[in-house]
Amino acid sequence: MSTFRIRPGSFRELRGQLLRRTAVVYSALAGAFVFLNYDASASVWPTVALTGALFAGIAAFTWFITMKRQALLFESTELIVNDAGITRTQLDTPTKTLAASDIVRIEHFGSGVFAINGKRAADMIWMPAQVEFPEKLAEELRSFSPVLSLPAPAWYRRYASLLGLAVLPLMYFFFTSESKAVTVLVGTILIGGLGYSQWIIQHSKDIDKRIKLYSRFGWLILFWLAVTFVAKLS
Fold this sequence. Notes:
The protein is of the alpha+beta class. The chain has two domains: 1-158, Roll (PH-domain like); 177-234. The chain is built from seven helices and eight strands. The protein has a four-stranded antiparallel sheet. Strands 7-6-5-8 form a four-stranded mixed sheet, with no helix packed on it. The protein is elongated.
């Protein structure tokens, strides 16, 4: 049996990447927002500036209060490999186990990330590029299945995890628009997307217990959106 851990202090690498990607996404959203409102009356801009500052403040506050815990969770990740299969453990997160007979595909991306695929998408086990002794891990994984070497994901896929940030401008358009067509379109995206996210969060084995607990407040936001949706269409 072998146990593979994350290199101590390696979350700093990931934090820098997340900060840069978040800055790019927020800059793009801010640019799009200004473009869509470039002909708005002068009286609207104080509200726009205040809203933008509020969103930026929420993002900064969330970033700084969560990074320490995220580092702790990330660096607590362990991958246990033995003849019976593969087990991933992480602090305050459900243990994930794949029996040897359930492993169907193992991928090693150019970015250094390992992806161990089971028969269901939800069974996938990720091991970050910051794992110690990646060559030894790849060697042991070959006892279950060939390790496929794949190129790093396309640049736009690296930003997929940040799509949730689009909720903030969508909510702004939803609450400020007087068009019923915009209300139906944006409201449907928000309610459907947030509802699906809530279901994924509560059933995922890759999300820690505290986030699952806090995410339950999302049902209040969904209820608020649904009530507003009905009121705006009445």
